Amino acid sequence: MRKTIRPTYPLEISIGLLFLVFVIALFLSAQVFAIAKPQLNDGKNIYVGMVLVSIAVVVMALVLWEEFLFPIKVKPTEGGAVFRNHRSKLKKQLLIYCAIPLIFIFVYSEYEVNHIRFVIWAAICIILPVAGKLISGINNYNDFLTLTSEEIQYQNNKKLGTFKLKDIQKIILIRDERKVLHKIELLLADGNQVLIDLDEMELADFLTSIDKFITARYENLLK
Question: pLDDT (tens digit, 9 = 90+) per residue, 155-183?
Fold first, then answer.
């Protein structure tokens, strides 16, 4: 059973925050349309268009602000744990994200819009989730770090390796100025060195857990 290390927000907090995002977006979204007043235009009330644009903003928040829908869980394995950016989360984010371009395509085809402002709003809602979450998630789709009582195994894009603890002389934990773990250096018995860069592996949410695991399990190898 997976261990949750960061739960989602409580339902009432999630609803409250998303409603606040929706209201702010609704208040500002009238600027997307060429007709500034919420009047009927060929039978179409721009209130509906404003609601749709606001929903797109909420969807963007759901993708970027993972605490709404996606808890962070560690997968246990025999003698240890697997740390990885779960693939199911990325698939759900991609599915949710698809609603954003569809909404803007519909709004553009059904309403008279202010083209400059429409492009700005659409670009923000479409590009931010891609740049902020989706590209990184796709690039690190197969990345993982497995720590057990017998070995350390990892994959970082094309870099990968499995190292038995008996073949490791020292483990060096490299932290930043805030004392947050970012890299793991393995000094092997054959003289080789291996650098596992956690920053490149979409494991930011697991850094504290990885640090605690290594400190507790591999104390005799730490330098």
Answer: 998 889 999 999 999 999 999 888 889 99
Domains and CATH numbers, the chain: 3-73+86-139 (no CATH), 144-221 (2.30.29.30)
Residue 88: per-residue pLDDT: 87
Q: What is the mean pLDDT of residues 179-208?
A: 90
Is residue 202 within 8 Å of 140, Cβ to Cβ? yes
* CA pair distance 45, 49, nearest whole angstrom: 7
Q: Strands across the sheet with 193-197, in order? A: 168-175, 181-188, 193-197
CB 62 within 8 A of CB 98: no
Query: Dihedral of CA 200/206/212/218: which sign?
Result: negative
Q: What is the mean pLDDT of the chain?
A: 89
Answer for the pair 127, 135: CB distance below 8 angstroms, yes or no: no
What gap in Å lies between CA 165 and CA 151, rounded to an integer? 5
Q: What are phi and psi of 111, to 5 degrees?
A: -130, 155
Nearest residue to 53 (alpha-carbon basis) of 120, 3, 145: 120
Residue 40 has pLDDT above 60, yes or no: no
Radius of gyration of the chain measured on its C-alpha atoms: 23
pLDDT tens column, 4-18: 888 999 999 999 999
For the chain, the straight-line distance linking the first and the last C-alpha, in angstroms and rounded, comes to 32
SS3 161: strand
